[in-house]
């Protein structure tokens, strides 16, 4: 189990049905996070980030696909295992501090309560762990205040202490800085980075905050319920001996060979419906797919041209007139 990733999602699908309308919140999402990694998850509103975190936290189950966290199969997991999982294996921090902390308890009591409810940490070690966590997160001085008396940043730092109260393998945070100003967000992100380093908890943090890039080595972008790109960062030393952060963005290729083209690339070349692919010795080229079939070079007809465009054309596909009596293999051109 030791060399198994802490988070593995394969082809994860979550379909919500509300008033007879189906929403595919996750559409075959793949994600792998190694033990101890800190990864940021970014993406437009509605792209499926919270849906993913709800599944990973054990409070929701996927409609299809596979999800394993710290050796637990989240699809098969039932009753007692699910409860133990939620109490001891994962910790979570939500955007709204009201969801993280009980208002009538002090910060210290909130952390202690999380331990007492779970019963994972031996009784004799609880108090010491509470103090250590609050100290580490820089909220020891305000530990006896109730949430209403704390600033937004202090509340979220106490919330991180609550999330870590039972020594989870995995820490999940859904927009923990969403209600904070820039400076306070940076403080909270730095605190998460520090606990990730010191506790070694695998950390997945959803954020809109571009500044998160400073604190993580990997950023995963979700688009339409699927992982679309990943940005990897590393620190190098340049010729002058200075430390420089370098970032490289990668498109994500799933097991079926699918990938999403970045929206900017699609609009820059006005790509629509179908594209032409050609294999070069060291790369694959993607070109606009419009052009009369006559222009297709002989012999190129069987190239993996995007005939798949027949599938996913969206609502206006039905209105696209097809040439009558087209041969089965003809590549119809969009007349627009
Ligand atoms: P994000 O966190 O990235 O903003 P969400 O995971 O909350 O996105 O939502 C993804 C999609 O699923 C959205 O279209 C949203 O409207 C829909 N959705 C989320 N939760 C529910 C639900 N309980 N019932 C119906 N649709 C939902
Ligand atoms: Mg969300």
Protein architecture, described:
The protein is an alpha/beta fold and 336 residues long. It has 2 domains: 7-235, Rossmann fold; 274-333, no CATH class. Helices cover 25% and strands 26% of the residues. The strands form 3 sheets. It has a 7-stranded mixed beta sheet with strand order 6-7-8-3-9-10-11. Strands 2-1-4-5 form a 4-stranded antiparallel beta sheet, covered by helices on one side. A two-stranded antiparallel ribbon has the order 12-13. Helix 4 (107-118) packs antiparallel against helix 5. The longest helix is centred in the middle third of the chain and has 18 residues, at 182-199. The radius of gyration is 24 Å and the shape is globular. The N and C termini lie far apart (55 Å). The model is unreliable at 303-336 (pLDDT under 50). Adenosine-5'-diphosphate binds next to strand 1, strand 2 and helix 1.
Counted by DSSP, the helix tally is 8
> What small ligands are held by the chains?
adenosine-5'-diphosphate, magnesium ion
What is Rg?
Answer: 24 Å
Provide the CATH topology of the largest domain: Rossmann fold
């Amino acid at each position: 189990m030791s060399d198994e990733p802490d988070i593995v999602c394969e082809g994860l699908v979550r379909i919500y049905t509300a008033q007879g309308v189906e929403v595919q919140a996750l559409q075959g999402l793949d994600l792998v996070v190694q033990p101890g990694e800190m990864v940021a998850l970014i993406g437009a509103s509605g792209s499926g980030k919270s849906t993913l975190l709800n599944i990973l936290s054990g409070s929701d189950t996927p409609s299809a696909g596979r999800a394993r966290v710290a050796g637990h199969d989240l699809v098969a997991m039932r009753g007692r295992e699910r409860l133990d999982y939620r109490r001891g294996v994962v910790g979570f921090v939500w955007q709204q501090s009201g969801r993280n902390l009980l208002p009538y308890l002090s910060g210290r009591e909130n952390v202690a309560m999380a331990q007492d409810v779970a019963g994972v940490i031996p009784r004799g070690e609880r108090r010491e762990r509470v103090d250590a966590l609050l100290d580490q997160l820089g909220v020891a001085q305000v530990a006896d205040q109730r949430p209403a008396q704390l600033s937004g940043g202090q509340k979220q730092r106490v919330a991180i202490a609550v999330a870590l109260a039972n020594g989870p393998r995995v820490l999940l945070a859904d927009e923990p800085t969403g209600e904070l100003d820039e400076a306070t967000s940076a403080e909270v992100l730095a605190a998460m980075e520090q606990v990730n380093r010191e506790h070694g908890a695998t950390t997945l943090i959803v954020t809109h905050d571009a500044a998160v890039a400073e604190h993580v080595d990997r950023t995963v972008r979700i688009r339409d319920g699927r992982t679309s790109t990943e940005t990897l960062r590393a620190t190098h030393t340049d010729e002058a001996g200075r430390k420089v952060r370098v970032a490289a963005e990668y498109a994500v290729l799933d097991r079926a060979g699918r990938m999403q083209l970045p929206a900017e690339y699609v609009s820059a070349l006005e790509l629509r419906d179908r594209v032409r692919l050609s294999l070069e010795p060291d790369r694959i080229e993607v070109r606009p797919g419009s052009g009369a079939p006559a222009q297709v070079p002989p012999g190129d007809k069987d190239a993996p041209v995007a005939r798949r465009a027949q599938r996913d054309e969206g609502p206006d596909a039905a209105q696209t007139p097809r040439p009558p009596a087209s041969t089965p293999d003809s590549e119809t051109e969009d007349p627009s």
